[in-house]
Amino acid sequence: xxxxxxxxGTTTSAASATEALRRLYFVRFAFAVVWALVMFTMAERISxxxxxxxxxxxxxxxxxxxxxxxxxxxxxxxxLLYVNMAVSLLAAVGVAVxxxxxxxxxxxxxxxxxxxxxxxxLAVAVFRRAMGGQWPMILSGAIxxxxxxxxxxxxxxxxxxxxxxIGYAVPGGVFFLVSALRLKRGARTD
Length: 190
Known about the structure:
This protein is mainly α.
């Protein structure tokens, strides 16, 4: 087992970074599925509870990126995780403001966030290919960017709903689950 010195001077193994990333991916899967199930009941209009949940999703992404950056520092965590934190934090603020304007505004912010964060996710996963289990994350990042474009387009529909944006969370969660399962096998399989 190889170890590398973390910036703080402590020794951290690559295996523990992989295990931390696996746990994080399992948590992200569970959060995405539960969030989507609750949000589907509020897809037609933005209620106060729905607005809170809409803001919570990108905030959860910020928290997940913080955990990811801390746990994978020894594995050469790219600065792109910090970009993701900033983008998701801006998305949370943007969604909070957009909720007051209605579903089309939320879809525009959500779409822009999906595009940018998807591209960042794709880049991080490409950087981490040697860890194994990253192909689902590469696919998820690319699909996220494409989905974001569709959210932007759907904002101009006659009667837009949040259904597509909410549904976006489920496949994203499944990709995290698949990646977590593949990380268990590590770099031997990817």
